[in-house]
Amino acid sequence: MKILSRLAISFLMVGFLVPALGPITVTAGEIKVGSFVSAKGFGSRFVIMPWMDRARKDLAKIGSKTTIKAYWGGSLGKSPFQQYDLVKGGVADVAWVMAGYTPGQFPELEIVEIPFLFRTANEAAVVTWKLYEKGLLSGFQDTHLVGMFAGAPAGIFSRDPISKLEDLKNRKVRIVGATQGDWLRTLGAVPERASSRKMNEKLNRGTFSAVLQGWSGMKTFKSFGLVNHTVDVPVGTLGFMLLMNKNTWNGLSAGEKKAVQENGGIQIARDSGKAYAKAAKDIRVMIKKQGKHKMVTFSQAQLNVYEKAAKPIHEKWASKNAANRKAYDAAMAILKEMRAGG
User: Fold this and answer.
1) pTM of the model
2) With contact defined as beta carbons under 8 Å apart, do 6 and 247 qualify?
3) Among 141, 205, 221, 235, which residue's beta carbon has the most beta carbons within 10 A?
4) What residue ranges define each of the domains in the chain, with the CATH number in brackets?
5) Which residues of 113-129 are buried (b: 16+ CB within 10 A; e: fewer)?
6) CA–CA separation, 88 and 144 (whole Å)
7) Within 13 Å of residue 165, how many CA atoms lie on the same side as its CB?
8) Which tens digits make up the pLDDT trace of 223-260?
9) How far apart are the C-alpha atoms of 263 and 50, rounded to whole Å?
């Protein structure tokens, strides 16, 4: 394997990007997997670790000396907004990158943020992977995509009483991406982008009245204690990616590429979809048992009303440009087939 011939550059970039951290010891022939989330995080445990284990086994089968090692909790760079640059620059060989935290780089992936489009994590993950396979997603020219996954659709979690979506009027609400902000403005809310950690700080200070966040994200970042109302409504999700440095990918042998990629791709999409769906269900049960939150749900009739009201946001996003329109129309076709059992 020819990877990591650029190790000296990687070390320099580590020193530049994360000077407060101690030196990172890297073994020649090692694929460094970086995550700003701890090893206990849901995506770490149920998506990244299983992929690493499968890939390691297949690498061993072909006699490869290449190793895969994880650097959890931001060891290679703590900011979630920094992960794309870390993997592009070679500080990490593989990184967990969130499309919403890399604005402008993956424009068509904003589709996952559209409220009332995807009903499950599996739908979001499988559809976006298939869009990638169809060549309808851009932004990957400087990296290699190992796999695509998504959290379960976000809910609304509030410090202040809320019984209907219209109650968000004039309230400051945390978002991840611009499309969520467009939708909230139709309700008269005031959206503001923030990472999960900043979200907690602003909830604690009372700056945010409510937040859009995934159920697993609320648990991972210990945010449930900062809110007392939960609204169970699918208001968009996050597009997650496992990206590999392009030089690292090009330096792998054909057999090593196969071990890495065949354990990623659609397998990551489907496995993560099941895992995130189970997690969201389990967390709902946990919150209900604790009895500390007012849990708001809507009838199917009311959900239909809200979904219809969100259609102009769908059309606004799809009409931005030809690439968005192609991605949206293809996504709707894939969803129709999936929901019909295809």
Assistant:
1) 0.86
2) yes
3) 235
4) 7-103+120-150+238-278 (3.40.190.170), 155-236+292-339 (3.40.190.170)
5) bbbbbbebbbbbbbbbb
6) 9
7) 22
8) 999 999 999 999 999 899 999 999 999 999 999 999 99
9) 9
